[in-house]
Every structure is written in C-alpha cells, then in structure tokens.
Design brief:
CATH superfamily: Aldolase class I
Number of domains: 1
Strand content: 5-15%
Pathway: Cofactor biosynthesis; thiamine diphosphate biosynthesis
Radius of gyration: 20 Å
GO biological process, one term: thiamine diphosphate biosynthetic process
Oligomer: single chain
Function: Catalyzes the rearrangement of 1-deoxy-D-xylulose 5-phosphate (DXP) to produce the thiazole phosphate moiety of thiamine. Sulfur is provided by the thiocarboxylate moiety of the carrier protein ThiS. In vitro, sulfur can be provided by H(2)S.
Protein name: Thiazole synthase
GO molecular function: thiazole synthase activity
Number of helices: 10
CATH architecture: Alpha-Beta Barrel
Largest sheet: 3 strands, parallel
Number of strands: 10
Length: 259
Amino acid sequence: MDELIIAGRSFRSRLMVGTGKFSSNAEMAATIAASGAEIVTVALRRVNIDDRQDDLLNHIDRTTCLLLPNTSGARDAEEAIRLARLSKAAGCDPWIKLEVTPDPYYLLPDPVETLKAAKILVKEGFIVLPYINADPVLAKHLQEVGVATVMPLGAPIGSNKGLKTRDSIAIIIEQAIVPVVVDAGLGAPSHAAEAMELGADAVMVNTAISVAGNPALMATAFSQAVIAGRNGYLAGLGKEQHKAVASSPLTGFLREEQS
C-alpha cells in the first residue's frame, strides 16, 4: 500500500484536515469521518487541552485520528514554544504543527521565528511540522535541524486561491528529504489534485471544506482528488508538448488501402 510515512508513523490518508470554521462540532465530526483523514489539526488557543471532555476534543475520534495541536496565533518563537510545551504537559503526543504568524492581515509565516522555534522544539523531542512560505532555502534549513515535514503554503490561509506558489513548491519537492505537505490556500478539490500531481506527499485543507455548503460532501471530494492526484503522479504524467501529437498514427493506412 502507498502509505504516507511521517516520523516513522504510517498513514493511509494523504489528506489532513482542520477543525476551524464549522457551524457545529457535530458537523465537524461528520466531516472528518467523511474525509477519511487520519491527521486532524486543532488550534491550542481554541481548546482546553487538559480537559478530555472539552466539547471540540470530544468530537474527534482519537482512536482513528492523530490529534495534531497547532500553534496558530503565535506571533513569535517564544509564544509558539510555550504553546507546544503546554500541549506536551497535558499529555498529548509530542507532535506539533508549528505556526508563527505575526501579520494579522495575510497570516504569512515568519521564517526567522519559525526556524528559531523549530530548532528548540526538535531538541526537546517534538515531532515538528512547520507551516512556511514556499521558500526552498528555508525548507532546506528546517530539514537540516530535524523537522518531520515541511508545509509550504499554496496561497495565503483561507484565500481559496489554489496553488499560486507552484514553481517554488516544485523546487521544495525536488530537494526534500522529508514529506512535503501543501498547506493553506487550496480552495477546490482540483487544487489538491494539482498539488499531488506535482509530487506533494500530502495536503492540508480546512477552510475550503468547512465553509462549503455541504462540508462532508466537500471532504469526500477532496479525499478523492488527493487519491487521483497521487495516482497520476505515481503513474507518470506525460510531458507537455509545444505542438499537437496525434494519439493515433496518421501514416500507413492510406497506402495500405491503395495497394
């Protein structure tokens, strides 16, 4: 089976989903189930991670999903590290989605503070999945310090614009020694398929699913698109051509009829 491997752990699904912007926790739970996702992110600022009966956490089946706390809202490395440590102290697995976004308008990740936090968290034993700009140089530096994945954005968070950073993500994929997860900006199943066809190992989707008219159905569509895109990549996509190339031979049959 073509499984996703992160930090030695296997996952059948290559779609990760979030927990924000749903109309209710019940809708969120149904959508996660429909997605087939096995990694679900939750913002540490939104929940009481110490309380297993927290309503949001109570709607996530932790027997089938890895709960991936994220440091959303952290403005610098210090805040991100503090949130990660709180998660670990509460008994969560030492997995953390590292997000450092000081800019409240575009929510673009801070590369300097992200790298700073990653170095410290990796040394403390965390499995770090950093959200980054589609910067191949930063991606290499993060891999050198021992992160488990790199998660470059396709477009700004929640923008639904798709794979606007395609060329840079292609370079990151080419140079990667850890899984590459395209995170943020994917607004349609076709965007997810495009990322997977490019060679991404997985995609992370929240807004496009949670704000859809039918979130569960949209989650199913994204799941199917991820599978299709991955299969297309594995099959080997044909190269683009600058001129038409006939799929059937255009020579031979006329001469055969005349003979």
